[in-house]
Design goal:
about 325 residues; six-stranded mixed β-sheet; three-stranded mixed β-sheet; 9 strands; about 15% strand; elongated
Length: about 325
């Protein structure tokens, strides 16, 4: 049975978006990569939750039968002692998506899927390809023996070096004291992930950061709340211009998340759990629409003004026709 993977062009775009998310932590890049994979296989996007570590560092990712995927965030992955590179993190993402797509005989197919997703991504130059072809013709027998030996080694080590499933026990790093932490009381409440909690408690408390931030800020209807997420702040005139560009409706609630170089807006309805618009104003402005904590729409814009204008239209539509709780949301308002 042959395993179907996206074409090379799509896989290169997926790999490029994952690499940029690993380096810059821009959520739209990761969402776009996952959406491209799910759109190709015609499946619904999995519900992904981020953690600082899983099973005290023994596991890098975990996929559940109901479609949930728990992953280690790149910001925490880079602080690892053994596995901290970008390529290993991307391989872990492919492995967990293989679990999500091929649940039957999960481990073998997930390994095969992660290997085939990166096969052929690098394009060799014409000169190196010619040299390789000539060398292969001259040393065909030696190359065949080498390939056979390598396949034997890979087959024997397949079950021994499966680092993302089971590894030796690693003691957790010593947690920093409260005096060493930056004095950002609201932001640090959402980024001190899984400290002093067991796994089950962490899954319940750290599911949706945006909703937790909205509940903590509790903005008034028709008004804004400001939350500083980092020690570096955006200029006040930038915050004022963003508020002026996005004229918040009377029944909506707005939260300005100041990340320093990037400004995000969270727009909610009268009930925070009904729907939420996540507007990221960076190099590539984007708008993510969530209904009942499930992402239904993602769109990237060239200009911040276009993103704010489109987000306001969606907010007005959701206010006029609020999504019912017991009926499936079709996304016609977006």
């Amino acid at each position: 049975m042959r395993m179907i993977v996206p074409p090379v062009a799509n896989r290169r775009e997926i790999d490029r978006n994952l690499g940029e998310f690993f380096r810059n932590h821009r959520a739209p890049r990761f969402n776009r990569a996952i959406s491209l994979m799910c759109r190709y296989f015609n499946v619904r996007r999995p519900r992904i939750e981020w953690f600082e570590y899983i099973d005290w560092g023994k596991t890098a990712g975990r996929t559940y039968e109901d479609g949930r995927i728990h992953l280690v965030h790149p910001e925490n992955w880079k602080r690892g002692r053994i596995y901290f590179s970008e390529r290993l993190w991307i391989q872990m993402i492919y492995h967990e998506m293989g679990h999500f797509l091929f649940w039957t005989d999960a481990e073998r197919k997930a390994d095969m899927f992660s290997r085939r997703m990166v096969t052929g991504l690098r394009m060799p130059s014409r000169r190196s390809a010619t040299r390789s072809r000539a060398r292969a013709q001259l040393n065909s027998r030696r190359g065949t023996v080498r390939v056979r030996k390598r396949r034997t080694r890979l087959a024997s080590a397949r079950n021994e070096n499966r680092w993302w499933v089971e590894t030796t026990f690693k003691k957790p790093k010593r947690a920093k004291s409260e005096t060493e932490m930056p004095q950002l009381p609201v932001a640090m409440a959402f980024y001190q992930v899984a400290r002093d909690y067991d796994q089950d408690r962490a899954k319940e408390d750290l599911t949706d950061n945006n909703l937790r931030i909205a509940r903590e800020a509790n903005p008034p209807q028709g008004g804004w709340a400001y939350v500083a997420m980092t020690e570096q702040h955006a200029p006040p005139n930038v915050i004022k211009r963003v508020k002026d560009e996005f004229k918040i409706p009377r029944e909506a609630r707005g939260i300005v998340l100041d990340h320093g170089r990037v400004v995000r807006l969270l727009i909610c309805g009268p009930q925070l759990e009904d729907w939420m618009l996540d507007i990221t104003l960076g190099d590539e402005p984007s708008v993510d629409a969530y209904v009942w904590s499930v992402m239904f729409r993602e769109r990237i814009f060239r200009r911040a003004e276009d993103a704010l204008r489109q987000a306001r239209k969606w907010a007005i539509n959701l206010l006029q026709f609020p999504p019912p709780r017991d009926e499936p949301f079709r996304g016609a308002l977006l």
